[in-house]
Amino acid sequence: MGGDKAPAVVVDGAVQALAAAPGKLAVILVGAEDVLRRELDRYDLADLNLHVVNAPEVIGMDEAPAVAVKTKRQSSIHIGLGAHKEGRADAFVSAGNTGAVMAASLFILGRLPGVLRPTVPGFFPTTESFTVVLDVGANVDSKPEHLVQFAQMGKIYVEKVLHRENPAVALLNIGEEPGKGNEAVKMAYEILQQMPGLRFVGNIEGRDVMNHAADVIVCDGFTGNIMLKFGESVVAVLPKLLGAEMQAQRLGREDVETIQRVLAGVVRRFNYEEFGGSPLLGVDGNVLIAHGSSSARAIEQAILRAAEVVEQGVTASIADSFGA
Amino acid sequence: MGGDKAPAVVVDGAVQALAAAPGKLAVILVGAEDVLRRELDRYDLADLNLHVVNAPEVIGMDEAPAVAVKTKRQSSIHIGLGAHKEGRADAFVSAGNTGAVMAASLFILGRLPGVLRPTVPGFFPTTESFTVVLDVGANVDSKPEHLVQFAQMGKIYVEKVLHRENPAVALLNIGEEPGKGNEAVKMAYEILQQMPGLRFVGNIEGRDVMNHAADVIVCDGFTGNIMLKFGESVVAVLPKLLGAEMQAQRLGREDVETIQRVLAGVVRRFNYEEFGGSPLLGVDGNVLIAHGSSSARAIEQAILRAAEVVEQGVTASIADSFGA
C-alpha cells in the first residue's frame, strides 16, 4: 500500500519481478485484500508465485512515524515485517512512509547486536558507475562511532551486493586535509585511519562524489539527505533549463528531438529506478526501502535487490562483523 | 597574488572593472610590485585609476591559514586588509586562500559587535534567478544562535545588494515539518519563527533549493559547503556525460554543435563568475572572497560587487541590526 502510486504500480512491479526471475522468487503482497485482488484481476495468476496477505490498515505517507507505528498494528508495514520476523518471508520491501518503515523495523526486528544505529545508503551516479553514500536520512547528530559503523556496513554492502572487492571508503568533508571538518568527522577520521581491513582513502569534498573518489562515502544523515535530494532536483530541473534555452535559441523541431533523446540517455544514469531501493542496514532482517514515487520498474528492481541481499547474506555478514 | 591564475587574471580583471565603471572606482593592486608592474606593461595606464602597493610575501593556496596568518605579515592579504583597516581602501577583494582571508580578516578587522561568527554565503542558480545559501564553509558545528545570525545577515545582504524586499528566509532541513532535523536546526526553527521583521517560511529540503523555495537559505557551513561543491561538480560533469551519450548515439557534427550551444547557455546560469564573489559578512569591514579559479571576468565582477557592498552600506546595516 506504500508509495505515491500504490497499490497499482506495486502489484505491477511484483509481477514484473516474478517474470524477471522465473522460478526463483515468491512474492507476498501485503495490504487491503479486496483492493489488491481487484488489481490482480489484470493478470493471469495461474503460473505466478504470488500471494496475498490481508492488512486492513494503511500508514499514510505524511503520518508521524512514531505515532503511526504505535497505533496501527494492522498496517501493511506491521504485518509485512511480522511475516518476515516469523520467517514466512525472507525480506520486506516497501515504498511507503520511510520513517514508519524504519521505526517499525527497529521495533519489530530490532538492531543487530553491536550495531549502534541502522543506516540507509543512497546511490549517486558517477562518471564511472555509481557510488554509495551513507547515511542519507535515518540518522542526524551522528557521533564518530556511528560514522565508523556506517563505513563498515557500507563496505559489506558494496562487497556483497555490488561485488566490488576491497572498496575504497572515504569521509565526506569540507577539505581533504586531516583535521578538517566538524568535531564528529575529525574523530571519525582518526578511528577510520587505524581500522584494519578497511581501505580508508581519507577525506573527500562535495565535488569529488560524482568523480567516483570512493566506492563508499560516509557522512551524517543530515548532510547526506540534503545532498541526495539536492542532486535529484538538479536532474529534475535540467530538462526545464534546457527547454528554456532551446526556446531562447529558437531551435527547430528536429533539433529539439535530438537534444531530448540525448538528455534522456543522460538522465537515465541518474534514475533512482535502476538502483533498486535502499537497504536498511543494521537491523536484524532484510528490509529494502524503495523511493516514495516508485514506478513499477523501481518496485521490480527493489524486489530483485532484496532477493540479492538475502542470497548474499548481507545481514549475516554485518552480524559477524559487529558481533566479533 | 591570490587564485590559481594570479596575478595575470587579477590584473586583467581589475582593468576590466575600471572600464566597466568609468570614473567611479579606484583599484589598488597589492602584491609583489615587480611582478605586477610586468603584468601592467600590457596596458596603457594613463587613464586608469589603478595603483600598486608592494607586498613581498604570498600566502599559498594550500598553506595552513592559522600558521600563515601569524607568520607572513608582509603578505598581500595582510597588507591589503591593513590598507582597508586604515581607510586607504573601502573594500578588500581576494581570490586567495579562503581560510587565510577569513582568519586575517578576523584578526585585522575584527567582528562587528554582537556578531558571534562571520559567515560566507554561496549563490545557487534557481529556476527563477538565484538564491543565497549561508553558511557555505566558514563555520562548522554551528549552534542555533549562529544559524539565526546567518539568517539575519543573509536577509540584509539580499535586501541591500540584490534589491529584493522582505526576502523569504528558510531553514535547510531533512523534512518540512517543524520538529525535523538535528538539535541545532530544531532550536533555530523555534527562534526564527518568533523573530520580528524576518519573513521566515520554515523548513525546506535539498530538493527545494533550485526551485527557489526561498531567497535566503540557512544551514551549517559543513552542509552548505558540501552542497555547493557537489552542485559545482554536477555542472562540471554534465558536458562529459552529454558528450559520452552523443558518442553512443553516433550524432553528426552539426547536431553535436547545436547541443553544445544549448548546453553553454544552460551552464552560463551556473557560472560562479557572474555571482561576483562572496562577501564575508559580520566582520568590521568589506571583504569579498572570489573563487580560487577565478577568471578575469570573475575578478571584475567581484570588484564591482565589492563597490556595491560599500555603496549600499551592508556592513553598517549589519552593525545597526546587531548592535541594537
Summarize the structure.
2 copies of one chain form a homodimer. Chain A has 324 residues and is α/β, with parallel strands linked by helices. Chain A is 46% helix and 13% strand.
The rough form of chain A would be described as globular
**Over all CA atoms, what is the radius of gyration of chain A?**
21 Å
Q: Mean of the pLDDT scores of chain A?
A: 93
The topology string of helices and strands of chain A comes to: HEHEHHEHEEHEHEEHHEEHH
Distance between the termini of chain A: 39 Å
Query: Strand content of the residues of chain A, in percent?
Result: 5-15%
Largest interface comes to: A-B, 53 and 52 residues
**Order of the strands making up the biggest sheet of chain A:** 4-5-8-6-7
Number of strands of chain A: 10
**Oligomer designation:** homodimer
Which stretches of chain A are low in confidence, meaning pLDDT under 50 for 5 or more residues running? Answer: none
Biggest beta sheet attributes of chain A: 5 strands, mixed
Structural class of chain A: alpha/beta
Helix content of chain A: 40-55%
DSSP helix count of chain A? 11
Notes on the protein architecture:
Two copies of one chain form a homodimer. Chain A is globular. With 324 residues, the first copy, chain A, is α/β, with parallel strands linked by helices. The mean pLDDT of chain A is 93. Helices cover 46% and strands 13% of the residues of chain A. Chain A starts with 7 loop residues before the first helix and ends with a helix. In chain A, the strands form three sheets. Chain A has a five-stranded mixed β-sheet, with helices on both faces. Chain A has eleven helices and ten strands. In chain A, helix 7 links the parallel strand 6 and strand 7. Chains A and B meet through helix 8 and helix 9 of A and helix 8 and helix 9 of B.
